Amino acid sequence: MSLKPLVIDGLVAKVPIIQGGMGIGVSLANLAGAVSREGGIGILSTAQIGYQEESFEKSPLRANMIAIQKQFEKAKEIACGGLIGFNIMAATFHYDRYVKRCVEVGADVIISGAGLPINLPELVEGSQTKIAPIVSSNKGARVLLSTWKKRYNKTADFVVIEGPKAGGHLGFKAEVIEQSIEQMDEEIIKIVETVNSFGADFNKKIPVIFAGGVFDREDIDHYLSLGCSGVQMATRFVVTEECDAPESFKEAYIKAEKEDITIIKSPVGMPGRAIKNRFSERIKHEQIPIEKCRNCLSYKHCDRETIPYCITETLLNAVTKEPEDALVFAGSNAYRIKEKTTVKTIFKELTTA
């Protein structure tokens, strides 16, 4: 059976696959554009998106604002008219400026998580940009959509559920991750019901997208059978020719075995899934001094005096230095990737019935 297009309030992706945002420097224009060209939705991560700009070390915010436009325009050119959006962490310092900048350059969609994006509707007011919160529970979905309804008389254009098998920061407490994996299907069904009820209130269809551990066509069919309209995949696209990450980063994925996929404690207060290496072992027993603060997170998400390490510093090191001595985020299935491929090849595999 062929996959149905993903329709988001008038926007149409021929293939119901969204490429997940991966920062720093993993999902930029080349990857996002390639995914969009194949019929999916390509996503740029705004997390220090301007790290390659000359002005970055002196003025990270300014560099990021410049890069948002550069990366978007380049991705759009590669996409040949396809859909391109941004992933913006709600915990980002100057979150409002990032959202407004993405709207200004013409983002088709904005996906926002790492905290509840409470004021997202007002930041995109009057634009054509479609918005989606990332939620991990039915309770979170209900609270956020209720708040948007009450405060703005608005609702989501689509909703992304991020499950406990995802890479990077997770919306689950470390001690319940395994239990949450077992119960996720049941939670998805509840979230879909909740989202549908809000859709009925606003007389619109709100697609639900599942993310976290989606690897092959069998996974896609499974989540569609639970009521989802599409999936979001990130890890699967890392070891492709088009991915913006350096070869050393991709090699870390290829070399990883199942036992190398581990849960780490992030300084932002969430558990995270990454590939075990010298860095992940080091942070178990050592606090790593901050070399330079680049004001990546809002103050309530980062206590510079007590954090075990700087999240920006180590993610930058993963794509600019030696990944073995840096944080390499990855989903639970990263170990299944054993060779480099192309975005086109992956899409062919996933869309072949």
UniProtKB/TrEMBL annotation:
Gene3D superfamilies: Aldolase class I. It comes from Candidatus Enterococcus dunnyi. The keyword Iron-sulfur does not apply. The keyword Transcription does not apply. Keywords: Flavoprotein, FMN, Oxidoreductase. One of its GO terms (molecular function) is nitronate monooxygenase activity. It comes from the Bacteria. The lineage of its organism: Bacteria, Bacillati, Bacillota, Bacilli, Lactobacillales. This is Probable nitronate monooxygenase. SUPFAM superfamilies: Inosine monophosphate dehydrogenase (IMPDH). Nitronate monooxygenase that uses molecular oxygen to catalyze the oxidative denitrification of alkyl nitronates. Acts on propionate 3-nitronate (P3N), the presumed physiological substrate. Probably functions in the detoxification of P3N, a metabolic poison produced by plants and fungi as a defense mechanism. PANTHER family: 2-NITROPROPANE DIOXYGENASE.
